[in-house]
């Protein structure tokens, strides 16, 4: 499937910003499930500082802002050709060792709820266990926007019983690691069947299975990732893979507007 993607992020300020630094992870890379046909990333109103591939294999850009601009427009757009590998992404690559994806993080630390969830998963086959876990997470957390936030932990989301794709991914990661699987967070895009306009980018999880490598599980939709998915960044949790993050100095008030379209 050939997907055309536009991701526009605009920041507006009511006064000049004394200084801001932002990290962008908005450039997908070609791999087993996708080929980047064309892609561009621009940041109007900001200065390019450095461009590198981080330890997780993510294309990463740093941009800075200071002085007069009252608006910053970050725009990522391009075309990606995708294939359906039944969720199998393949062998582990990059500088980060597999064991790094087995440890807890501040957002993915198991409490009694996730420990109980992990104990409920039965079966000897790894893929069967992980599919059970995916459906169990979906059953326990209803998809509902506005009930959680970017700092909600996996244990909090499970106890609340509501959340978004980020929360589904965090609970899956935490439980999968308890079961002995390296697991990582994935941020990217999903082509919806009924619309081009998206309210936000998408997130799902991948677990590493002996003999298969990384396998993708989207708990929010109850499926393994197929040709409708475009992977952009990975990490131990949301903080490692979030599309835009940064710091800002000064008293200026900020307004944020995001536009995302994913069309075939």
TrEMBL record:
SUPFAM superfamilies: Cysteine proteinases (SSF54001)
InterPro entries per record: Bac_transglu_N, Papain-like_cys_pep_sf, Transglutaminase-like
Transmembrane segments: none
Domain Transglutaminase-like: 157-221
Gene3D superfamilies: 3.10.620.30
Residues in the signal sequence: none
Protein known as: Transglutaminase
Organism: Nitratireductor indicus C115
């Amino acid at each position: 499937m050939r997907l055309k993607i536009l991701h526009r992020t605009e920041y507006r300020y009511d006064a000049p910003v004394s200084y801001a630094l932002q990290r962008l992870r908005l450039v997908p890379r070609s791999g087993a499930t996708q080929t980047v046909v064309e892609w561009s990333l621009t940041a109007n109103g900001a200065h390019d500082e450095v461009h590198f591939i981080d330890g997780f294999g993510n294309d990463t850009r740093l941009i800075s802002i200071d002085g007069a601009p009252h608006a910053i427009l970050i725009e990522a757009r391009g075309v990606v050709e995708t294939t359906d590998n039944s969720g199998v992404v393949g062998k582990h690559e990059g500088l980060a060792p597999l064991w790094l994806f087995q440890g807890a993080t501040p957002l993915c630390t198991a409490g009694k709820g996730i420990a109980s969830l992990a104990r409920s998963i039965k079966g000897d086959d790894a893929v069967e266990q992980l599919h059970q876990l995916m459906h169990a997470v979906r059953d326990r957390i209803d998809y509902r926007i506005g009930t959680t936030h970017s700092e909600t932990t996996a244990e909090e989301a499970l106890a609340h019983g509501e959340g978004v794709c980020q929360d589904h991914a965090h609970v899956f990661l935490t439980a999968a690691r308890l079961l002995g699987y390296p697991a990582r967070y994935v941020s990217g895009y999903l082509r919806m069947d009924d619309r081009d306009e998206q309210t936000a980018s998408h997130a799902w999880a991948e677990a590493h299975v002996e003999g298969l490598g990384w396998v993708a599980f989207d708990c929010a939709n109850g499926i393994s990732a197929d040709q409708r998915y475009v992977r952009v960044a990975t990490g131990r949790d949301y903080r490692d893979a979030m599309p835009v993050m940064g710091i800002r100095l000064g008293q200026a008030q900020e307004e944020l507007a995001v536009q995302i379209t994913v069309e075939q």
